[in-house]
Amino acid sequence: MREDLDRRLRRLQASGEPAELIDLGCDLAEAGRHRDAEGCFRRAAALGDSVGSFNLGNALAAQGRNEEAVEAYEVALAAGESDAWRNLGLVLEELGDLAGAMHAYRGAGEAGDPAGWLGLAFLLREQGEREDALVAAERGAALGDPVAAAVVASWCWSMTFDPALEPELRAGAAHYPSARADLGRLLRDTGRVDEARWVLELGAKLGETESWLPLGNLYCDELGDEEAAEEAYRAGIRAGDVYCHHNLGLLLVERGDVDGAVEQFRLGVAAGDDLALRALEQFEGS
């Protein structure tokens, strides 16, 4: 494969055919040879090909050269390559230009890319603009995107805890981990503990961080299995769910391990969990 790519690269050294250069560049990029791919895309872009400019941006972004990637995407957009909007949003977000990223994601969405609406939705939600975030996600769902639909279902559940959302959460469970975790919570709340356990254990086996906390809660509160609950909380912590520190701390308190509980609350506080802070204040003030 490498010999074939090198042979094609030598053959196209002086090529004036953008399509051939782009095809080779894509194959080089797929092989992880982003510097060589950059050269092909740069020559195609110099020949005035907008797809070449778009792919040049991708090759530069793959090398961590985001400022240069922004320039390439902007050239592609100016030439009418609307596919560049979302990738422009991604690199601008990585560069910390959130206003620019939101503008780019909106451009992607308006060009018919549901992932653009989702990118905008998540940024708006991070800024505390939850209503606008939901509207953006709904626009992505309206384009037929199952991930956007799952996000909408999950966010609506977090606002309403409406059991009528069960069909949407079931449909979204395979597309958005929070939707699976929310489905587990809904099933537990409506008395279907065995199915809730199956749903959450599946999420955990699939490596979905979001399933560990509700699974631990179910083990503890519904099944009375404290050892399984502790294992679930600790697995959640290892997977990056900082809120598991608080629930593990509460479990340790029930077992009489106050020192261990306080340690968990402190770890939760360090990660920004307000519930852990209130629990820590309670124990340190007593």
Note down, in words, how this protein is organized:
Pfam families: TPR_16 (PF13432), TPR_4 (PF07721), TPR_8 (PF13181). This is Tetratricopeptide (TPR) repeat protein. InterPro entries: TMTC_O-mannosyltransferase, TPR-4, TPR-like_helical_dom_sf, TPR_rpt. The protein has 286 residues and is mainly α. It folds into 4 domains: 1-80, Serine Threonine Protein Phosphatase 5, Tetratricopeptide repeat, CATH 1.25.40; 82-144, Serine Threonine Protein Phosphatase 5, Tetratricopeptide repeat, CATH 1.25.40; 145-241, Serine Threonine Protein Phosphatase 5, Tetratricopeptide repeat (Alpha Horseshoe), CATH 1.25.40.10; 242-286, no CATH class. The protein is built from 18 helices and no strands. The chain has helices at residues 2-11, 18-30, 34-46, 50-62, 66-78, 84-94, 98-110, 114-126, 130-142, 146-160, 166-172, 177-189, 193-205, 212-221, 226-239, 244-254, 258-270, 274-284. α2 runs parallel beside α4 (50-62) and α5 packs antiparallel against α6 (84-94). The radius of gyration is 24 Å and the shape is elongated. The N and C termini lie far apart (69 Å). 45% of the residues are buried. The model has no long low-confidence stretch (mean pLDDT 95).
Domains (count): 4
Order of helices and strands: HHHHHHHHHHHHHHHHHH
Gyration radius, rounded: 24 Å
Name of the level-1 CATH class of the largest domain: Mainly Alpha
Count every beta strand, where a strand is a DSSP E run of 2 or more residues.
0
Main β-sheet description: none
Please give the share of residues in helix: over 70%
The low-confidence runs, each spanning 5 or more residues with pLDDT under 50, are: none
Mean pLDDT: 95
Per CATH, what is the topology of the largest domain?
A: Serine Threonine Protein Phosphatase 5, Tetratricopeptide repeat
Any guess at the CATH architecture of the largest domain? Alpha Horseshoe
The H-level CATH homologous superfamily of the largest domain, spelled out, is Tetratricopeptide repeat domain
| Overall morphology | elongated
Number of helices: 18
Organism: Petropleomorpha daqingensis
GO molecular function: identical protein binding; mannosyltransferase activity
Pfam family, one: TPR_8
InterPro entries: TMTC_O-mannosyltransferase, TPR-4, TPR-like_helical_dom_sf, TPR_rpt
